[in-house]
Amino acid sequence: MNTLTSIKTQLPFGYYTLPFCKPLQVKERVENLGEILGGDVIENSAYDLKMKINETCKVLCKKRLSKISKDLLRRRIDRDYSVNWIVDNLPASTKYVRQEAGQSEFVYMNGFPVGLQQQGKYYLHNHVRITLNYHENPSSYVGYRIVGFEVEPRSLSQSVRDEGEGEFSATCAGGDDEDGPSTKAPELFEIDAHDEVWYTYDILWVESGTRWASRWDNILKMEGGEIHWLSILNSAMIVLFLTGLVAMILLRTLHRDIVKYNELATKEEIEEETGWKLVHGDVFRKPQWSRLLVATIGCGVQLLGMAVVTMLFGALGFLSPAHRGGLLQSTLLLFTFMGALAGYASARLYKLFQGDNWKQATWLTALLYPGIVFGIFFVLNLLIWGQASAGAVPFATMFSLLVLWFGISVPLVFLGGYLGYRKPIIELPVRTTQMPREIPLQPWYMKPIFTSMMGGILPFGAVFTELFFIMSSIWQHQIYYMFGFLVLVLLILMITCAEISMVLTYFQLTSEDYHWWWRSFCSSAFSGVYVFFYSWLYFNQRLQIEKFVSVVMYFGYMFIVSGLFCILTGTIGMVSTFCFIKAIYGSIKVD
User: Fold this and answer.
1) 411 by DSSP, 3-state: which?
2) 534, containing H or E segment
3) Contact of 272 with 248, CB cutoff 8 Å
4) Which residue, among 77, 85, 152, has the nearest Cα to 115 in the 3D structure?
5) Is the dihedral of CA 209, 213, 215, 216 positive or negative?
């Protein structure tokens, strides 16, 4: 038994918080870090399943329904809570038939509802038909393997007989008789009309041709394959357009003779070509809040390394959903070990800015953004804990996260910082003058806020469709496993962020504005702001969350995700722009 989940509250609760049948001793399975953070609580059950032995209307137990239990059941039914079971590491799914364009197809949904509400009355699903598909292949292995697990819930008022010696038998109206399916309409089990409930179940074993390796296919089958490809094609066209624009700029910059000897070159083109050269003495000037920029870029490199390795592992099949909690745990551990890259990148940049206290900058890199995320997570966890939800992370696990952070990540950041600061300073193609050049008055469309808003649209457009599927998997409890698409989208996102920052920075330099460090970061980082706006739109259009704690939890987590997306995309944009500026200023000769 796993937790009860709901898309209306996003707060999971333990299975045995409701009046369900318990085994003699409830045992929790030892879980990994990802399962605990994901809110999984896996316990044993009272159901007795034996291989290839069918059961009909077998009695599980009887439970008394107190007023408190009835109120709790009604609340769980009102909020659309689903029951989640597991057999042989396969999650229970409910099969529905969907009619589209005169054709019917089966759709599988995770779990099954606690009960249903009709005309103001509440009915409990106290009978289940469990269908287990098995596969046999004597040439490969001995015995049988379970390859499918379906549950059909029903609300029934059974007729139970006491057979003596603690044994009971039941007749389930509306179930299957010996002669086949019954034609009698079942009487639904209304919660308010009874003070006790009998739980019964059927077991049906069905031989299946599905192989063990393909048993997750129905569960992982997500819709929108064509939408994915259209989205990637659209993003690829954006990348081609930006690549052409960057190639044209580099061509005109590095081959000045083309402009010089081209008879069609206009006066404006020549002025534009020389505008960025006038600021060669200021283009590498140290920016304001340089330590904050160093810490931000360090965290961005850490996130980028984590994202690339995670996506590659996922695309190669190492992060199968069969390994429950594996994706979240792998992401967390990879972020911890990528601390060395964060320290190295921040130290290299800090030395470029001729900073004299690399340890202070390294501390800022190691603590600033992880500290903000941990602080928000801690406050949200207190709110979830106040709701007595199974999704609350235990304080022992919180301590484990702190050990990962201060015991592994921070030392690795310092190791990377030490190695980075020992490297020679990055060689720049031009010298920086002592007196800063005066910047001409800029037109309105070159203001930082306008260029950032324009620049963030294209990276957000590149990930827009995939973002919808990812959010659906998180907030509507679906399983996401399209890592192949995600690798392509990540690659397109990186190219788009790099090119949009380069293009906008080039136009800024032609206007003789050399404050490009933060501008190149914000040009692509603003896409994270659009992600947060989209999360607000998704909340209003797709979700039905009403509880205050659930709303705070949703926007708190989406704020963290949007902020990290800002840092990731902004880092890609700034580092790419730095390489671009080094290239174009290395092509000119300055006395």
Assistant:
1) helix
2) helix 527-542
3) no
4) 77
5) negative
Q: Which tokens go with 70?
A: 């009835």
pLDDT in tens, 215-268: 888 777 645 445 567 777 777 787 787 777 777 766 665 555 344 434 444 555
pLDDT digits (tens, 9 = 90+) for 140-186: 889 999 999 999 999 998 888 887 877 888 888 655 544 444 555 67
For 228, the token pair is 């994915």
- Residue 99 pairs in a beta bridge with 104
Percentage of the residues of the chain whose pLDDT score is greater than 90 = 52
Strands 86-87 and 115-118: unpaired
Burial group, residue 388, by CB count within 10 angstroms (0-12, 13-18, 19+): exposed
Task: Look at residue 409 and tell me whether its pLDDT is greater than 60.
Answer: yes
Q: Report yes or no: 211 and 135 within 8 Å, Cβ to Cβ.
A: yes
First to last CA, the chain: 75
Q: Domain residues of the chain, as ranges?
A: 15-220, 223-284+428-528+566-591, 286-425
CA-CA distances (angstroms) from residue 67 to 73, 148, 192, 220, 370?
10, 38, 9, 40, 46
Q: Are 513 and 252 a contacting pair, CB within 8 Å?
A: no
- Looking at the DSSP assignment, which residues form a beta bridge with residue 112? 83
Q: Is the Cβ–Cβ distance between 299 and 365 less than 8 Å?
A: yes
> DSSP states of 139-205 as a string?
TT-SS-EEEEEEEEEE----EEEEEETTEEEEE-TTSEETTEE--SPPPP-BGGG-SEEEEEEEEEE
Are 216 and 321 in contact by the 8 Å Cβ rule? The answer is: yes
- Angle at which helices 548-585 and 358-386 pack, to 10 degrees? 160
Nearest in space to 156 (alpha carbons), one of 171, 137, 134: 171
Read out DSSP for 334-377?
HHHHTHHHHHHHHHHHHHHTT-S-HHHHHHHHHHHHHHHHHHHH
Full-model pTM:
0.89
Cα distance between residue 361 and residue 289, in whole Å? 11
Can you give the length of the chain in residues?
A: 591
- What are phi and psi for residue 6, nearest 5 degrees? -145, 135
Pairing between β-strand 112-113 and β-strand 86-87 as defined by DSSP bridges:
unpaired
Which tokens go with 75?
A: 């609340």
